């Protein structure tokens, strides 16, 4: 049997065994690196988000939009992120209300919106761009403000009751 020095300790091993050991070390190293790289893509990425749902009503009824072939009407809600001073500080997120008044804010990639304080604007476009609410609940004027820190169902927001 032919022996030759192999490794840092100069111990002698059968010819071909060194290549096998070096190959095994390389294979284990490559496997560990591949596992580490693969784990980087696992889990949720991006900022934390929360899901927000609710219903928007007027005097207990969903806001109506006249159905047309062109689909020019909609009830739209916009969630405007507010800073500590109460002024807009980030992006806004939109949701359209369904005919029953319910809404779901899809936000970032369909995952919701970042936790924070939001002014909620409501527009009743019937037809677009005419707001039947007269701008009373616009991005700048809406008195509806909510702190949203976790998945939240805002329940019914009745515009007739908002002061």
How does this structure look, described?
15% of the residues lie in helices and 37% in strands. The protein is an alpha+beta fold. Strands 3, 4, 7 and 10 form a four-stranded mixed β-sheet that branches. Strands 6-5-8-9 form a four-stranded antiparallel β-sheet, with no helix packed on it. Strands 1-2 form a two-stranded antiparallel sheet. The relative contact order is 0.18. The model is unreliable at 19-29 and 31-42 (pLDDT under 50).
Task: Please give a handful of descriptors for the protein shown.
Immunoglobulin-like, 4-stranded antiparallel β-sheet, alpha+beta, 1 helix, single chain, 2 domains, 163 residues
In short:
15% of the residues lie in helices and 37% in strands. With 163 residues, it is α+β, with helices and mostly antiparallel strands.
Topology, element by element:
Layout: E1 3-6, E2 11-14, H1 17-40, E3 52-58, E4 61-62, E5 74-82, E6 88-96, E7 102-105, E8 116-125, E9 145-148, E10 152-158
For the report, how would you describe the main beta sheet? Answer: 4 strands, mixed
DSSP summary, beta strand count? 10
Tell me the count of domains: 2
Mean pLDDT: 81
What portion of residues belong to β-strands?
35-45%
Radius of gyration: 30 Å
Shape: globular
Instruction: Indicate the percent of residues in helices.
Output: 10-25%
Instruction: Please report the number of helical segments.
Output: 1
The CATH architecture of the largest domain comes to Sandwich
- What structural category arises from helix and sheet content? alpha+beta
CATH class identity of the largest domain: Mainly Beta
Termini separation comes to 95 Å
Low-confidence segments? 19-29, 31-42
């Amino acid at each position: 049997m032919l022996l030759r020095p192999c490794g840092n300790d100069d111990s002698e091993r059968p010819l071909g065994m060194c290549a096998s050991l070096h190959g095994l070390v390389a294979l284990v190293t490559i496997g560990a690196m591949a596992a580490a790289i693969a784990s980087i893509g696992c889990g949720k990425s991006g900022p934390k988000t929360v899901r927000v749902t609710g219903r928007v009503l007027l005097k207990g009824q969903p806001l109506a939009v006249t159905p047309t072939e062109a689909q020019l009407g909609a009830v739209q809600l916009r969630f405007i992120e507010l800073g500590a001073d109460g002024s807009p500080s980030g992006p806004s997120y939109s949701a359209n209300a369904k005919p029953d008044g319910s809404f779901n804010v899809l936000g970032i990639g369909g995952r919701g919106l970042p936790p924070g304080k939001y002014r909620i604007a409501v527009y009743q476009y019937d037809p677009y761009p005419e707001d039947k609410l007269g701008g009373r609940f616009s991005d700048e004027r809406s008195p509806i403000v909510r702190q949203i820190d976790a998945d939240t169902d805002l329940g019914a927001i009745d515009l007739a009751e908002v002061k």
